[in-house]
């Protein structure tokens, strides 16, 4: 029974990992830049291979259970380390005056995304802990625990699907919304004060025209 209790969050972690893998296989372009920043092989073929591995690991955890959850935990720990490196790269680029978002999008689900932030790292670490708990409790496969699930497992599947969608939105929609809501940087006042005078020729300066002479 303890294995059944932890299965809902563990399956959410597996579904999210599988969705990320399928996204990379279908649309590898978004993750190419992230792998380049991490100094890893970053060809479309390498991204598709990574996505295929993520998908197979997620399927193995759901279908086989047991030791496969330990592999899911290890995968999320690797993803947490990669997210932290991307986050630091974004900060370094922003501090140097560049565009941090240009190098920090993870392309986790086969799409461009907002810069990687602490949320990505925290979610990956929590997913690793959940998967580790499933492995430690000896959570079985979907087939083995199905009879123990209420309402023939339908409620469990609804919970898992809703939870996975919420996690995906947390990693994609929320960071993008925050990025879009940031106020635009204030313009440098010196540009307005001195800019119009730069390059002006002396003849362009306004010349006072003498008024009519008073007799």
Describe this structure in a few short sentences.
The protein contains 11 helices and no strands.
Number of helices: 11
Give the CA-CA distance, first to last residue. Answer: 111 Å
Rg of Cα set: 27 Å
Q: Summarize the biggest pleated sheet.
A: none
What is the H/E order? HHHHHHHHHHH
Helicity range of the residues? 55-70%
In the residues, how many domains can be counted?
A: 1
How much of the sequence lies in strands comes to: under 5%
SSE-based structural type? mainly alpha
Write the layout of secondary structure elements.
Layout: H1 2-5, H2 7-26, H3 29-37, H4 44-64, H5 68-95, H6 101-104, H7 118-136, H8 142-145, H9 154-171, H10 173-181, H11 189-194
Helix pairs in contact: 2-4, 2-7, 2-9, 4-5, 5-7
Structure description:
It is built from eleven helices and no strands. The chain is mainly alpha-helical. The protein has one domain (2-182). Mean pLDDT is 78; it is low at 196-200.
Properties at a glance:
215 residues; mainly alpha; globular; 11 helices
